[in-house]
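user: can you give me the structure for this one chain? tokens are fine.
assistant: on it. calling the predictor now.
[tool input]
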Amino acid sequence: MKPAKASGSTITSGIISGSRHVDHRDLAARVQRMAGGLAALGVGPGDCVAILMRNDIPYLVASYGAIALGAFAVPINWHFKTDEIGYVLRDSGAKVLVAHADLFRAVEGAIPRGLPVLAVDTPPEILAAYRIDPAAAKAPAGAEEFEAWLAAQQPYDGPPLPPTVSMIYTSGTTGHPKGVKRRAMTPEEQKMMDHLRNLVFALRPGCRAAITGTAERLFLMPRFEAEELLKLIERERIDTMFMVPTMFVRLLKLPEAVRRRYDVSSLRHVIHAAAPCPAEIKRAMIEWWGPVIYEFYGSTESGPVTFASSADALKKPGTVGRISPGAEVKILDEAGRELSPGGIGEIYSRIPAYPDFTYHNYPEKRREIQHKGFITSGTTGHPKGVKRRAMTPEEQKMMDHLRNLVFALRPGCRAAITGPLRAGERRDGRRRRSARGAIAKAREL
């Protein structure tokens, strides 16, 4: 990796973390060597590669390297306790663990015997951000140093494999975390997902993203610090970010003089999710940053099923927006009946073109959360009359891909109109899940 230059304007593309920079070509080469090295360690399609790291460039290398083999990257929340990390490693059946050196030292006793470990030197910006003893930054005995190992690997030269996605472990509010495992996407599904991601995250050629995303320039912050983020936005002219409401709260706690000190006019799309955002916090952020704040509602299992703009939030405080193109949402009572506008019930949703999933090792848990093809995360809400606005050109493209995928419409095809399937089925034995973290007040869909 190359050292980053002092001024952000001198780097036109790639990923920047602290003083380090890797361009897209170098990243692709590192990913191919990562895939070749993982294959040499016995990793193949359907296997798991666990990643225990903070925001860092090698995280992306390890993740994409696994995906290139048709394997699953399994990111582990580094805030987990030692026994929780050990559980994920055992449950996933990980073939390899890639970890920051200091994190490996802290959980070494929980790592299954014989599991190959690639230890990434903890970089200076992370050492400084978390006040970590530099003595813990290097690979200890029992682990292979990541960069030296990677440099010795041959690039993967096997056939291209259907792309997988990361197997993310849920929070485990009703017991142990469960790995959400999706089947590989078809090329048509991949196109549809690309359009959906572009709509929700607004990733476009030439964009400059902080913290997350696939962008022309991607800036990784080692840790969220409110004023440091404002400095980064101004210095690098950041235009795209993915945030959570807690970050908004901390930004708004900065003194007024500090907030006015920085130019944030480059921002065009700031998407947030993962927790309810109080209406007054949303309004304050829109007043400060302008109508660039967006929100989606969904879960690891469902994907982004609703989408709200700043205009939606100001018009209907507390809303999570309108149903995303291609998504379907129902509000059901405890008997499984669909509610009319005004009734409060459990939110069920689906995106037909999303590759289906199961819970790794727990298929019965998957069956417990579904009803006639729809799934729930235990969140409550109330429906309004569904009124779709006119689609943007990007949404129209995505809908065209979805229709082609679902209905298999192709140039020259001959179609017949079919009738509905038999309705009126009832579900039996569905166990209601805990709604910990459910929205405090019912929200408009």
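assistant: here you go. The CA atoms of residues 407 and 418 lie 11 Å apart. The chain has two domains: 2-169, 201-407.
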